[in-house]
Design goal:
By secondary structure, this protein is an alpha/beta fold. The protein is 23% helix and 24% strand. It contains eight helices and 18 strands. The strands form three sheets. Strands 7-8-9-10-11-17-18 form a seven-stranded mixed sheet, covered by helices on one side. The chain has a six-stranded mixed sheet with strand order 1-2-3-4-5-6, covered by helices on one side. Strands 13-14-12-15-16 form a five-stranded parallel sheet. It binds zinc ion. Zinc ion binds next to loops.
Length: 340
């Protein structure tokens, strides 16, 4: 007779009945184990949070200063009602973690968001052996194949210098938590002055507080000169269209940094001049490699190209199951190789 699964989906999210805790719940609960601080994985109001040590300042800034946050070093385990829980690097953003839960020789790993490529601002993804693996599938289609980040940084530097030569500022849109800091850690600040939106500056301070080295970057103010503007690179969140604050300063070019820039219509859809496909998620091949490295027989697929990836994993012999949640939005359609 098979026993009750270690985790099941509940109204508040993925729940471990035996351990009485949730992973990344979307409603307040008693104990929330958090894979990382992005808004679609961490919500306010839980009585107790458990997160990886490197991400605790970032999580505090998001959950509020009164939140009760306990942190674990990577690999350190805690006993939650007899379930051994430990956190392991997911390589997504600072402090991102895979949650490993073990009970009576059964091991589950819930990956959260993850990437396997190197990132100077966070610990590198670590494959963890398990029986059941819960994977994201944000970019689980063959069209998504990342270039090494050195290539992307070099393209960004070339674009920045070309804009300087035309006397234009360079606006780079990047998510405020994670992507912006990865860019700051890799950009060559000898090319010109780097400015950041205040929301990015706030996250930068938490990264620095956690010991991450980032290029110097200032929030621009009214004293910014045209000469500075013409040479500057300005990082801002995608939601901010910030040029409005500096109408007197001159022309600019803008670009979006995201794995979605792989898609053919991305420049038009994001209303930008250029795009750079640098992602904090694994690409299609990396997802397959990461799953194989776990040795898991059963794979739950969430967040992204769920149906397509479940079908592919089944052809590869996995017991793959869709794990749809209210947070799962249908991703953009991509052409399958068969229809090209
Ligand atoms: Zn994330």
């Amino acid at each position: 007779m098979s026993r009750e699964p270690l985790f099941k989906m509940s109204e508040a999210g993925l729940f471990c009945p035996r351990g009485a805790f949730y992973v990344d719940p979307w409603a307040p609960v008693s104990t929330a184990v958090i894979t990382h601080a992005h808004a679609d994985h961490a919500v306010k109001g839980s009585r107790r949070y458990i997160t990886a040590e490197p991400g605790k300042w970032v999580l505090w800034s998001r959950m509020g200063q009164h939140a009760r946050i306990e942190s674990l070093k990577y690999g350190e385990s805690v006993d939650l009602n007899g379930v051994h829980v430990s956190l392991h690097p997911a390589g997504h953003i600072l402090g991102s973690a895979q949650v490993r839960a073990e009970y009576k020789c059964e091991v589950w790993v819930i990956s959260g968001d993850y990437k396997v490529a190197p990132d100077a601002t966070c610990a590198t993804f670590e494959p963890i052996r398990c029986d059941t693996f819960v994977t994201e599938s944000t970019f689980a289609q063959p069209i998504f194949q990342w270039q090494p980040q050195e290539v992307i940084f070099s393209e960004i530097h070339d674009w920045w210098q070309a804009n300087q030569a035309d006397g234009q500022a360079s606006f780079l849109f990047a998510y405020a938590l994670g992507k912006a800091q990865r860019l700051l850690a890799g950009l060559d600040s000898s090319i010109g002055p780097i400015f950041v939106h205040r929301d990015i500056d706030t996250v930068n301070s938490h990264y620095r507080q956690s010991g991450v080295t980032l290029s110097a970057a200032r929030v621009p103010n009214a004293g910014m000169t045209t000469a500075e503007w013409n040479r500057s690179l300005i990082l801002q969140p995608p939601s901010a269209r910030w040029k409005q604050g500096f109408p007197h300063l001159g022309h600019y070019k803008n670009a979006f940094v995201s794995g979605w820039m792989t898609l053919p219509d991305s420049l038009h859809e994001r209303r930008v001049h250029s795009g750079f496909a640098l992602s904090d998620h694994a690409d299609h091949r990396e997802l397959l490699g990461a799953i194989a490295a776990t040795g898991a027989e059963r794979v739950f697929v969430t967040h992204g190209y769920i149906d397509e990836f479940v079908a592919e994993l089944r052809t590869l012999g996995y017991d793959a199951v869709a794990q749809r949640t209210p947070r799962c939005r249908r991703p953009p359609k991509v052409q399958s190789p068969a229809s090209l």
